[in-house]
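Hi R.,

Here's the chain you asked about this morning:
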Amino acid sequence: MDGSSEQNNKIMDYQRMLSAGLVDEAAQQKIKHTVKNVQRMLLPISVRIPYATYLQLPEAVFKPRRTMLLLLLFTETVTYYHQYQRQLKTDQTTGEQYIESTPEDIETAFTLLETTLLKKSDELSDACRGFFEKLKAYLKELDTDTFHSRDVRTALRVSPSSLGRYLYELDRTGHIRIVKGNRYKGFEYKVQLWQDMETFAGDTKKLIASILQQIRSVTRIPSVTQSTDGLHNLQKDSKKGAVTHDS
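And here is the predicted structure, written out as tokens:
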């Protein structure tokens, strides 16, 4: 869930426009009906990702098994919604008809999951990350890397209890450290990590680009299966071509 101030402003702007009668609700309903009709046209069809063995996740992701499953499901979903633009294939062993994901589908899935990958690789909670980014922006304006908690609480309008939790979490994870002070007069903190998420985002984009380049360089060889009589079968394209509705 996006709890950023930008998202809050967008929602409140929409609420104000809706109350003022400036939203074309009829047009919105038309779009909803169009989406529903498009979904009704989708046929139940299996999806296979021939490049699944090339997919990798950044090592910084804390829950790689769950995240990998999410990436595969997103890729399958993108392919499924493009079923009318995909060649219908038939497994000669099982007779099952299916469509295959393309490198473009995988790229789209990575794009849709970019924010999720960053969050799943962030050791800070969402609330603490939001505070830390605001804190860094505030300190950059002052051209300093140190701060006192009382000044930050006033400038960023953070409650004392929330500020205490954020500072504890940031100190525990090494994002900030105490440079001087005491519990009675207050502490002075120094930011230790300025580009942690930017660095990870850059590394993630490089990894994704490398994976996509490797996938695109692969020559697609039809899968070979072996039947009970010892003969090898190739998975061939279905004579039906693309996915179509029966008349």
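One quick note: Strands lie at 46-48, 87-90, 97-100, 146-148, 176-182, 186-191, 224-226, 232-234, 236-242.

Cheers,
M.
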